[in-house]
Queue: 3 jobs
Job 1
Amino acid sequence: MKKIRIIIAGGGPVGVVAALACAQRGYAVTLLEAESTIDDNPRAATTHPSTLEMIARVGLIDQFIQEGLVARFFQFWDKPARAQIVEFDHDTLRDETPYPFVVQTEQHKLARMGIERLRTFADAKVRFATRVTGVTQDANGATVTAEGPDGKESFRGDYVIGADGGRSTVRKALDIEFEGFTWPERFLVLTTLDDFQELLTGCCYRNYLADPDEWTNLFKVAGDDGKGRWRAVFPTRVEESDEEALGDESTYSRLQRVFPLGRRYNVVHRNLYKVHQRVAATFRQGRVFLAGDSAHVNNSVGGLGLNGGIHDAMELVDTLHQVITGQAGEELFDRYTRRRRTLNIEFVQEQTIINKKRLEERDPKARQARFDELRAIAEDRGKHTEFLLRTSLIASVRKAQSME
């Protein structure tokens, strides 16, 4: 009997988790990644409790935690006053999840450890430097075309998962609309070796600094050397050029406004990117599916994008398995879009937009009202728990299970 083969476009963490989950279910897997190596540029690093449960399902949780930092708390700050507004404690969720904390592990580490595990499966093929250029399908399967080291190639499979990012070739080949908008400002990410826990007294590993002029997200990651480093995320001015935003004056003055160090910060990486809030009109067309940034993108405030993508991957593999094994008919495929698209809009899109607006609020009365609301939530145990169930996407997972 022919073994079912699933082709995954994209070797980032979402594609890798999907591929690994497929291999563990007994399916043949072909993973195609455009770049020649795993992209280790600083990107997503915040992994919420609901997602940690999924990483545990594919057998990577111990290594994942070991290579990252455990962050029990997160805080909101009034940046101009350099004062903490409120602290939230994930330990409140200890009766809701086996992982009542966030883990700060850079996404390239998850991709790397997943690929290492994937290569232990005889029927799993991993191809770097192989850029997907198109996809076609018929009643019996799908064909992916790609440009590899030896020129044009074709890969035939039973199903295709497009996890090839916000500019997804798979999504474009299917002519699926990417609905939403792009923010006028961009986000600037600066990575420094200076320790903000020594500078900003009382801060933790995850901090959101509200400021009507220039909010900041400030969080710590382990780094590949395990010695730790801090990432600071800022909005640019709308009229600011790339050269201005990435230049020394911008870099060092922005960090000094977080905390006046009295010398230059030790900056080891700078990145600038456009920020979108978009969701694909559908996450499935026939035998081809979208997951992760191919299906939805959002601003990074709250660290929800990658988490939502891994949720896509696990739900999709579970759905494929039910249909392939005859536990359900192909109509179950439509549920994947119903669940994942709805939940991305309700939990990821809405929450990240709220998070951003909370930090950038300019009206003094409205700003104070937002601070008061956060304090009221944090001081009430029930509201504290409910807030964390939503921000950790546990509530999203539970709602998915109730959706037919």
Job 2
Amino acid sequence: MGNSAEYNTSWDEGNEELWDKKYQVWEKRDWEEYLEENLTFPFTATRFEDMDSNPFADTKDAPFSVGHSVEVLGIDDEDEMRGIIVKVKEGRKKGYLLLCELEVISRDDKNFWPVREYVVWFANQ
């Protein structure tokens, strides 16, 4: 790992055994309850994925687009198929995004690991 406070996905490589152990814990976790207890709102996150987007559309300037930073205001709901839905704000616009499409960039942010664990668990379920 480097000294940088920004997360780098290469840090996950070679840690498969650790992730397997963590995943067993995550499978039993009530994620909505856990996140309500472990996240501090509001916090800043970056949208790194959009599961509903048209890959051929140029939406990079639209609010809440991939690559944009948003302020996560709170948990709104949990959908059985799509996961945790959070209320977000970008500029003056408010909306709703899937938590699994967001990441907290700084490892120093206390919200980094709860969000990261959820995203990794959700992607592997």
Job 3
Amino acid sequence: MKKLLVTGGTVFVSRFVAEYFKAQYDVFVLNRNTKPQVEGVTLIEADRHDLRGILKRYHFDAVIDVCAYNGEDISDLLDGLNPVEDFIMISSSAVYPETNVQPFCEDQPVGANAIWGKYGTDKIEAEKCLSARMPNAYILRPPYLYGPMQNLYREPFIFDCAMQHRAFYLPKDGRMKLQFFYVGDLCRMIQAILEEHPEEHIFNVGNEDAVDIKTLVSVCYEVVGEPLVVEQVWDHDNQRDYFSFYDYEYVLDVSRQKKLLGETKNLKAGLRESFAWYLKHPNDAAKRGYIKFIDENFAKSKINH
């Protein structure tokens, strides 16, 4: 069985990747062992910036780097590895400046984005470092990732509002569109790359169609089984005070992905899986103060049906 190294392996995407591939590969995870580990994988307990030769004991067929956020992350890991045939880095759509023509495509220039700031420019640095040192490596640029094992308070926040029978405070008219990608489809894309080794080495990944935020909220409430009551917010400048997504609309061109992956999971089906996971693991997502802000600042903060 081929050997696969996953950086991280304990939180959301990296954990899902480790779970997904352990039936097909001999999966090793690299982390500091501060959180519960996936059953059936081999832990390499180390800090990627202080490897002390530990990875030189292994020969991996592929590396899935979920946790690289800057150039140092990449260079320190590569310095610690023996030569590897396949390397896939999970980057981000935050590498595209908001001034680019949409939909963003892989051939457009990358650059600073006013919304994502240092996170985006650090990802650019990581991409450049990887491409310079491993020209045959692959880079994936997702939009918002969702699904089981979610650790960010995005769709879980909407689930909480629904489960608490709340009216939902929606930014403006709710027409702002977001693009999502189911974490299982990300794994399918990784698998397709490892099997087919396409000529392109940078891929936007995501659902082909964006969805407006009112539809997103409606589907989340439907999944929970709660009727939706909407309160529109028109006069508050920072929607991140009370809503789990930035006031930033963009779309990725995923034509390259579609050639390899075909169809992606329906949003409602993916949200059902995300909700089922959240019900069993309500403390996995790092809660933020959106509901508290709503209660303290908006008059009609809660409606009991």
